């Protein structure tokens, strides 16, 4: 009998130790008032993080370590903080490929000192919040690979410090806002694989620091704006698989830093310009699947760095100039 009591006592003690440790391990929901009082981050930013978590099914994320489990948002998955004498703030938010599912709340605009926002390759739905235009410190914005719909907010033109804007692989409609031409520090603009329509805004000529302009696989119409020739630092111009018409504007010959020129899959017409042979940095030239006529300019042979030349499915006449045989870097 005494032995049975000892065994029962031991079992009871083990139960209390086990359950006690589990109670201690239970996480505590985030208290934004406490976070604010400790000057970890402002209360508005704390609440905005929680709204993002709840709106995009946070418990279904691939990794939601820390989110709404403690009072240290700066240690949560994807959150990087900065600090000032007045307290901390959210500086970067990177939840790339993390199974976010649902709309972005308008409170995403509360991160006034945010420099990088990468929510690419999730399942985010709905419209792009116009409040993103409040993030005046932002240098990188990527919402690529989601299920976003609606138009591109004109307010994004307020992001004067932006270097990279990637809204590719979504369901965005409407036109490219003229206001994107105000992003004069931009070096990369990626809007590919959306059903964006309308014409290419001539205001983009103001993006003189731009090195990469990717607008392919949309429904863009009209002619190629000659003003693109003013984008002196442009290295890669991808306009393929749209509905562009007319000739290649001669102003593009000013793009002497161009390495990649993709105009295939449009309805471009006229002659293939001789001056293309002066773009000596070109490695890729793709004019296939258009309505170009006339002959192939022999001086394309001056493009000695060329590795890929695609001219098929046009209305070209005559033979292949013998000089093109000098392009020894061309791939089969």
Overall mean pLDDT: 93
Task: Kindly state the percentage of residues in helix.
Answer: 10-25%
Major sheet summary line? 11 strands, mixed
- The end-to-end span amounts to 91 Å
Q: What integer value in Å does the Rg equal?
A: 28 Å
CATH level-3 fold name of one domain? Leucine-rich repeat, LRR (right-handed beta-alpha superhelix)
Instruction: Please give the CATH class of one domain.
Output: Alpha Beta
List keywords for this structure.
eleven-stranded mixed beta sheet, single chain, Leucine-rich repeat, LRR (right-handed beta-alpha superhelix), disordered N terminus, 20 strands, alpha/beta, five-stranded parallel beta sheet, 13% helix, 332 residues
